[in-house]
């Protein structure tokens, strides 16, 4: 199915010998300056069922090369605000469903949207399951996405994330897409952009899958450089709270649900070193308010170690897959199917999307002339155990917390987050935890009216 409006079918363009030479020189310059050698970060994923590179993981068990897509890849122009002049490529399957899901598939350095289309099986999987695929494409010389500038690392700040958000908005308007089922995935530079998109737009993306990436904010620079050697070398180390704060700073004041994250990394990655894998886990477990201790560990394939955080199912808040002995270019056929399982798209019937855990909050306030105490009961009304929690709420104007019990409160006023103590981080199904605080007020002793637990809106009793 071709896109409507300003859509143009992708055509093979002839090039003169001079243009070919110029393109080769640009790729070489990007490789030398940006540290993304064609033998690893810049190489296209394989288009057969074989491993992406010698030493890379084999395809998933019984996986076959993807069938040829049944519809055409199209380029969409004039799709909205696009400060960095990205190109937008779109795949709409002939079998597209009503209110379809959207998958944004983000390419690697020196890649392109069409290369991501031909080198991965998302289009053929879209034929099977009826979702739409967006392939952003960089036009700057490096062919790398901007994951470094201050503009890219804040919501609505400009650069590539704004352009990609415009693409999503265009698809949502044009095809009445399901705004609760928008996802991002990427390889290398695209994996870094996946982290950035989930940080900048937590209200847009439901989940992401990053192959050989780095945490949100790790690649930040202030001198205009696209490359951060300390981060790529795996020497940027932060606490989970510090990593989480980088994400929360991208969209100040946001207290809604946060997108789930799946991360993949090879232990022998020599482009974006393996310590970045652990730092991503620290970041997203903190952002999602779940324990850094895995709820489940298994080996779905030889040489793979999969850990799940926050729950044990296919759609855990955080899922991490470590590939022993594998380098940077780890993507192989069969992996996209595992991404769709994590996204919940491997069924023609989307069904209800799971949440990290349903909850109920009961709050009472006892006030006097200049102060008050607030007593809060958190109840787990879901069916899964909560391991580690963060309760977010907004204090009424003029109130400032001076003391608290059962949790750590920060900041003391405004949009407050209460983080579990060491002794009450686990809440069993139908179990409860009691916490409280003392606060000063200037005449407004009202009770907070809305709460989220690990990003999920709670019922207030």
Radius of gyration: 23 Å
Largest sheet: 11 strands, mixed
| Low-pLDDT regions | 1-65, 350-356
* Tally of separate domains: 2
For the record, the CATH class of the largest domain is Alpha Beta
Beta-strand residue percentage: 25-35%
Alpha-carbon distance between the termini? 49 Å
**3D shape:** globular
How would you characterize the overall build of this protein?
With 461 residues, the protein is an alpha+beta fold. The chain has 2 domains: 7-343, Rossmann fold (3-Layer(aba) Sandwich), CATH 3.40.50.1820; 359-460, Immunoglobulin-like (Sandwich), CATH 2.60.40. The protein is 22% helix and 25% strand. It is built from 9 helices and 23 strands. It has helices spanning 17-34, 113-119, 122-129, 159-175, 189-200, 229-232, 240-250, 275-288, 335-343, and strands at 7-9, 73-76, 87-91, 102-106, 132-137, 182-187, 207-211, 260-266, 296-298, 304-309, 318-323, 359-367, 371-380, 386-387, 390-394, 400-405, 407-410, 415-420, 426-427, 432-440, 451-453, 456-457, 459-460. Strands 1-2-3-5-4-6-7-8-11-10-9 form an 11-stranded mixed beta sheet, sandwiched between helices. A 5-stranded mixed beta sheet has the order 16-20-13-12-23, with no helix packed on it. β9 and β10 form a beta hairpin.
